[in-house]
Specification:
The complex is a heterodimer of chains A (182) and B (188). Chain A has a single domain, classed as Thiamin diphosphate (ThDP)-binding fold, Pyr/PP domains (Rossmann fold, 3-Layer(aba) Sandwich). The longest helix of chain A is centred in the middle third of the chain and has 11 residues. With 182 residues, chain A is α/β, with parallel strands linked by helices. Chain A has a six-stranded parallel β-sheet with strand order 2-1-3-4-6-5, sandwiched between helices. Chain B has a single domain, classed as Rossmann fold (3-Layer(aba) Sandwich). Chain B is built from nine helices and eight strands. In chain B, the strands form two sheets. In chain B, strands 2-1-3-4-8-7 form a six-stranded parallel β-sheet, with helices on both faces. In chain B, strands 5-6 form a two-stranded antiparallel sheet. The chains are: A alpha/beta (182), B alpha/beta (188). At the A-B interface, strand 2, helix 3 and helix 5 of A face helix 3, helix 5 and helix 9 of B.
């Protein structure tokens, strides 16, 4: 049985992560390249601010697996990049991630908005099948991932990016709540 | 025009510091005809060669990136034409082996094999310039100007298969191929 979402007036209020802090953490990790498709979870708090940030070059793509290849290829001379997308695009890109990230051992770092996830619910308990299966799918593929939901979760971003490039393996940040721009 | 003849005609115009990204049979032909450390062969998933090329072009603006793509591959990633044309890269040169079949998968015909116009697609996507070459002489004449022009440039090579060069899948997916490319890229 699939749980239904609470009516809006009953939804517990939760705090959201800071888009500005996420962007600062990305920069702190030496990332200068953003490769992205729009995602409604990260649109206002991340992608629009990134698009106006002169310290980050934004390459807009047409389909998510392009981004896996672009970021993987960039890594050959240690150019650091982040691929932004929605979880639907992540699912659509699994073969590219399998081949380029895992088989080829390249540090493709992704930031994935969990569109349709209830802000107050852990993704594994979401009423949305498309959200609920994401972490188990990533686990089945032995892909490193972490969740950004609460204020303060941004702090682990630089370390996770460093680890991805140090081990030359993918990492996926799952964005469980829409970041606030500030 | 046979593919190996076209690729042989391309070889004299490749600089030592150029990156060549090649896929499937074009890759196998190229590896036999022009083995070099800056051949990038690990594209991983069908259709992705030009996207790897774009990543390399963005990250290595002082080098030319030459993509030897396949038509079946391009059809799996058509949005790449729009992405490349709008990414601001001027150092990407996209050569398409258009033999109209899925050659390494049994030579089945492409959808629309008898009429799809790849050069028109690239032009409509916004490439700086596009060419469509059906004869070897025409291709030989076009290459110098293409490679001396500001990218992204697109050349549809309407061709047939040439000599049967070996399909060494183990090499193109090998850690050795990736390591030798990485070492060559970062040598200077």
């Amino acid at each position: 049985m699939v749980a239904s979402a609470l009516p809006t007036e009953c939804t517990p209020q939760v705090k959201h992560p800071s888009g500005a802090a996420i962007i600062a953490a990305i920069k702190a990790a030496g990332v200068g390249e953003i490769v992205a498709l729009p995602d409604i979870v990260t649109s206002d708090g991340l992608l629009w601010p990134i698009s106006r940030d002169p310290e980050l070059r934004l390459t807009r793509i047409c389909k998510e697996d392009e981004g896996v290849s672009i970021c993987g290829a960039m890594s050959y001379n240690s150019t650091r990049a982040i691929l932004m997308m929605q979880q639907t695009g992540l699912m659509d890109s699994l073969n590219a991630i399998r081949a380029i990230g895992v088989d080829y051992e390249l540090p493709v770092v992704m930031m994935v908005g969990l569109q349709g996830k209830e802000p107050h619910i852990h993704p594994d308990q979401s009423a949305s099948y498309g959200v609920r299966i994401i972490r188990p799918v990533l686990d089945a593929m032995e892909l490193s991932h972490s969740l950004i939901e609460w204020p303060g979760d941004e702090a682990h971003i630089p370390q996770a990016i460093e680890a991805a490039y140090a081990t030359s393996r993918p990492h996926i940040f799952l964005i469980g709540r829409a970041p606030e721009a500030s | 025009m046979h593919r190996d003849a076209a690729l042989k005609a391309l070889i004299p115009h490749i600089r030592d510091d150029d990156i060549v990204v090649a896929v499937y049979q074009s890759c196998f032909d190229w590896l036999a005809l022009n083995p070099r450390d800056l051949n990038y062969v690990a594209v991983g998933a069908m259709g992705q060669a030009s996207s790897h090329g774009l990543g390399l072009a963005l990250a290595n603006p002082d080098r030319r990136v030459i993509v030897l793509d396949g038509d079946g591959s391009l059809l799996m990633n058509l949005g790449t034409l729009v992405t490349i044309a709008n990414a601001g890269v001027t150092n990407l040169y996209h050569f398409l082996s258009a033999n109209r079949v899925y050659e390494v998968n049994g030579s089945h015909p492409l959808p629309g094999a008898d009429r799809v116009d790849f050069a028109a697609m690239a032009w409509a996507a916004g490439y700086a310039s596009v060419q469509r070459c059906t004869e070897l002489d025409q291709f030989i004449a076009a290459v110098p100007q293409v490679l001396s022009s500001t990218g992204p440039q697109f050349v549809a090579m309407e061709l047939t298969e040439g000599a049967p060069y070996p399909r060494d899948y183990a090499y193109i997916h090998s850690a050795q191929a990736r390591a030798s490319f990485r070492e060559a890229l970062n040598r200077r």
